[in-house]
Amino acid sequence: MEKINFASKNFQIIKNNRGSQRGEMLDKFLEKLNLARKGDGYKLLTHSRLSKMLSHIPTEDLHAFYRQCETAKIPFGAFFYWSLKVKK
């Protein structure tokens, strides 16, 4: 009987290819947001929750919004949540 080698070098994490431009943008947002949330001890965001939060933003505007979040003087997540807040 052969012994199965479960060394971590034999396994590769495959990212889920969403197959759409919007899905790829959501992946970028999730990477940035979940990194900060994990460090702060919060639950990680899911694709479905993030897509619901960004449902009112067209796909073309997501690219510009991502760029704004990256170049803001405040942290990525703080600018993201601040800009999604409803202004009265």
Mind explaining what this structure looks like?
With 88 residues, the chain is mainly alpha-helical. Helix content is 56%, strand content 0%. It is built from four helices and no strands. The chain has helices at residues 21-40, 47-53, 59-71, 76-84. Helix 3 (59-71) crosses helix 4 (76-84). The relative contact order is 0.12. The mean pLDDT is 83.
**Overall geometric form:** globular
Helix content: 55-70%
List SSEs in N-to-C order.
HHHH
Strand runs, count? 0
Nearest-angstrom radius of gyration?
Answer: 17 Å
- Roughly how many Å apart are the termini? 70 Å
Task: Detail the poorly predicted runs.
Answer: none
Strand content: under 5%
> Can you give the mean pLDDT?
83
- Tell me the structural class: mainly alpha
The biggest beta sheet is recorded as: none
Please give the count of helices: 4
Produce a short descriptive summary:
With 88 residues, the protein is mainly alpha-helical. It has 4 helices and no strands. Helix 1 runs parallel beside helix 3 (59-71) and helix 3 crosses helix 4.
